[in-house]
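Weekly modeling sync, notes
Attendees: S.R. (lead), two postdocs, one rotation student

Agenda item 3: backlog of single-chain predictions. S.R. asked that every request posted to the team notebook include the full sequence so nobody has to chase files. The rotation student volunteered to paste the first one in as an example of the format we agreed on. Action items at the bottom.

Example entry:
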Amino acid sequence: MIVVDGRDTGIVIGNFENLEELLVKIMEDDSLEGRVVTDVFVNKESFSEVYPHQAEDIEASEIRSVEITTVPASEMAASIVGELFKVVRLMDLGAAKVAELFRQAQDAEGLEVYRDLLDVIQDFMGMVGLLREKFGTTDHPAFLAAADEISALFSEMLEVVENEDWVLLADLLEYEFIPAVSRWKQVLADLGEDIKVTAKG
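Predicted structure, as returned to the notebook:
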């Protein structure tokens, strides 16, 4: 039996060679457009691929049941925006920690935490970019200003790191980066509104 969001699809497991073929067929259904899969259960056990195309290795003869749970993409996006507010707080704390380490002349540890901070910022910006591409309804001035500000700040910080001026980097993080990061809360709030508009549309 193949069930999607509590509804029996009527699709016959025996018509497929493996789990991957079966999942591809299910995802072709028009009713799943604009929805995101959150859970897949095979034979009542949670399934997620450990390696690419693992589903290909599960033969149809081994499958008794498949249950899939989905949510609207806009609901998932709203949930991600909620998590991104937490990331802003983490970036804030991370920048303060790096500044503190450099001020205490713990340069090696400061650099390590600084690199981690850069990775978090990169992922954050990437996710905001993706969400704006998919759900952004207008170019909000807060986004354009925040993006320009962080971009200029990155260039400046890169130069300071090349010059190994750790005290100046600490100043930049504390007095410019932390206020710049807090301005992303408005960007996230605007994005949240855009997602609501898209969901209603």
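Discussion: group reviewed the output briefly. The beta strands are 2-4, 7-8, 35-42, 45-46, 66-72.
Action items: rotation student to repeat for the remaining queue; S.R. to check formatting next week.
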